[in-house]
Amino acid sequence: MQHTARPGSFRRFAPTLVLCLVVAALTAAGCGGGGHSGDGAGTKATKQVDMAAALDRPATITVWAWTPGTAEAAKMFEKAHPNIKVNVHNVGQGPPHYQKLRTALRSGRGLPDVVHMELQYIPSFTLTDSLLDLTPYLPDDFLESYPEWIQKQVNLQGGVYGVPWDTGPLGFIYRRDLLEKAGIEAPIETWDEFADAAIAYHKANPDSYLVNMPGAEAGQWLALFWQAGARPFSGDPRNLKVDLTDPKIKRVTEFWDKLYAAGAISHDADFTDTWFQGFARGRYAGWISAAWGPVLLQDFTRNSKGMWRAQALPQWSRGEHASGNWGGSTLAVLKGSKHPEAATEFARWILTEQEPVEMFAFERFLFPPLTSMLTNRRWLDRRYAFYGSQPVNRVYADMAAAVDTTWEWSPIHEYVATEGDAIRGKSVERGDGVTPTLQPWQDAVVEYAEQQGLTVAGR
Amino acid sequence: MPGGRGRKSLERHELAGAAFTLPFVGLFLAVFVAPLLYALYLSLFREQLLGGSTFVGLDNFAEGLKDEAFLSGIGRVGLFMLVQVPVMLVLALVFALIIDSDRVRFAGFFRLAIFVPYAVPTVIAALMWGFLYGRDFGPLTDVAGTLGIGTPNFLGEGTILWSIANVSTWTFTGLNMIVFLTALRAVPEELYEAAAVDGAGALRTALYVKLPLLRPAALVCTIFSVIGALQLFGEPQIFAAIAPQVIGKSYTPNLYVYNLAFADQRLNYAAALSFLLGAVVFVASFLVVSVFRRHGAPR
């Protein structure tokens, strides 16, 4: 599920955090032992893998994932595959998960078979040759079940490196009541209208902002660059493109810098207690949100339940129809897995078979990547009380169809994201805006890439 | 002359003694010296994501000495140390003297109450204070708003270091107070009697009898606090989640080392910086000891 996860609201997540720490401590010892049994069937990546025969053999696989409902899906899988046992561990959400994974990869011990892998991290882990090409273990027409832009996210260098789990096409959600009171008409079609609306809204309602845009949220910024048509990276480590000062990116940052300078929007850090409370108390009237976003807000917006509406992301020119993607994830299989067949089958089964897919979409509110779900009438027509019975899945499914296919992630995403957040966050906090941070960010990324032995294009 | 027999039994004693220290020496080597040596070994290489590992000698150390992010982090924790450590130790000392004076009721309760924050794990403490500091809706801000003194931003660029200092002080004052109290309990009763005979009141007893006797305890507390301050990590790491725009990646040297190792995959450089930070800690501890020696009361 979500994205750039952080220890969100402290009041809400503190107990969970403590629990996780305890569980992590308890399981750490167990992980080292490695639960692998069996004969270590051949892992040759030939196209002809006899999956049926391989899946007949007993196997135990370990899964590291944080999406709620994973354990439930694993039970369904075990029922359908009685000789495969699945251990699901949640070792952390977002960065802590990858840190533990890196550490395990480095030591070569206690590695899981299947790992949660967000779209933006796939090239960073294929760079270190850690992920298994799933092609030989998947049906030939596997990729065709997904929209083209999602295919491109997992189909890299001729291989398939993850089974899509959920995605986060960008849209805009807002409080209809607050906008109406301030005399703002919605839906807001273009970014120009959005800027006017933000200024007018704050004037009418000085304690509140149309949106909050934190400086330190790489995922959201990159999705906005994506929508604007910028392509700052290529995934090729031997000819890496880094172009963070592209005019198309500047167009986005200058747009937001004007709103920062006018004081028309706030820039509080997101997924913090202050931020959640900001929604609860009407400090923010809207959010440039990914498809997975609204679910996060439900607990904090009980008093405004039914007042929310979702609309398409505002466009740079009237009549355009473009979006970007923020977050979204896959299940990947590690190269070191002793049971690549069972591991791949697990990922494929829980993310493409009807029973678990509907469980994730209907009960856990994950935004589905499968075309069959994106066009599923029951799912599309579903009405949500939070949105005053608006069928919001239609809005986001429409946005998912508008995501451009040519975006690539850099193979050093951890650095790109954390360094960008550090520079951008400080600059916005100081009132200097985002545009001045593009060059330092570009320089830092290029320097890091070269330091790590990558070849940067044009250098 | 007690010939060879004595020597032999002495040798046997030495052997037995050595054998008794073996468990300690073994653990010391395995969990302290070995990791240190391994880190030192790591710090001499540079491993790339592409291209493997190469020996680079002291390059990582040279880079560290020029690294602005690292140096400004050292400056920051240095400033933190100069302010937070004295404030905390004076508070601990005052609490200890008051509780030891036998003039307060419920001394046991206060001793426990002041000590309890130390039992709260750093992570929980930082989470709790992070909530209390909340800019818009935190309870502290609410109180300030009710009193009409504006809304202070505890997590701003100029204030967050002192907000962190407040958390550290809240956490560790109790521990230091207990150390001081224990030292006070060890003062022989006759000294107090002598002071009383000489006509010293409670205040004079505290200033001229108790304080000088607390010097060894104060030295220990100061060294531990200085080391703790320079190695500041837990609080800024938690606060990075609620105020990423202020904390960033290199707010304190330890946080920087952590991010270099685990976000940037630069283990070698992180190892080198750890040694440089170790050197700073060593020098600071040495300075503390020499200051205590120089100003030592001749006894």
Q: Give the SSE string of chain B.
A: HEEHHHHHHHHHHHHH
Q: Label the overall shape of chain B.
A: flat
- N-to-C terminal Cα separation of chain B, in Å? 42 Å
What is the percentage of strand-forming residues of chain B?
Answer: under 5%
Helix content of chain B: over 70%
Kindly provide the radius of gyration of chain A, computed on alpha-carbon positions and rounded to a whole number of angstroms: 22 Å
- Shape summary of chain A: globular
Tag the structure with descriptive keywords:
heterodimer; A: 459 residues; alpha+beta; seven-stranded mixed sheet; two-stranded antiparallel sheet; 43% helix; B: 299 residues; mainly alpha; 14 helices; 76% helix; flat
Folded structure, characterized:
The complex is a heterodimer of chains A (459) and B (299). Chain A is of the alpha+beta class and 459 residues long. Chain A contains 19 helices and nine strands. The N terminus of chain A is likely disordered. With 299 residues, chain B is an all-alpha fold. Chain B contains 14 helices and two strands, in the order H-E-E-H-H-H-H-H-H-H-H-H-H-H-H-H. In chain B, helix 4 packs across helix 7 and helix 5 runs parallel beside helix 11. The radius of gyration of chain B is 25 Å and the shape is flat. In chain B, 32% of the residues are buried. The mean pLDDT of chain B is 89. At the A-B interface, helix 1, helix 4, helix 11 and helix 18 of A face helix 5, helix 11 and helix 12 of B.
What is the strand and helix layout of this fold?
The complex is a heterodimer of chains A (459) and B (299).
Chain A: H1 10-33, H2 51-56, E1 59-64, H3 70-80, E2 84-89, H4 95-107, E3 114-118, H5 122-127, H6 148-154, E4 155-156, E5 159-160, E6 163-175, H7 176-181, H8 191-204, H9 218-227, H10 247-261, H11 273-280, E7 286-290, H12 293-297, E8 308-312, E9 325-333, H13 340-352, H14 354-363, H15 371-374, H16 377-380, H17 392-400, H18 413-429, H19 438-451
Parallel strand pairs in A: 1-2, 1-3
Antiparallel strand pairs in A: 3-9, 4-5, 6-7, 6-8, 6-9
Helix pairs in contact in A: 13-14, 18-19
Chain B: H1 3-42, E1 45-48, E2 52-55, H2 59-66, H3 68-100, H4 107-119, H5 122-132, H6 139-146, H7 160-185, H8 189-197, H9 202-213, H10 215-230, H11 234-242, H12 244-247, H13 253-262, H14 267-294
Antiparallel strand pairs in B: 1-2
Helix pairs in contact in B: 2-14, 3-4, 3-7, 3-10, 4-7, 5-11, 10-14, 13-14
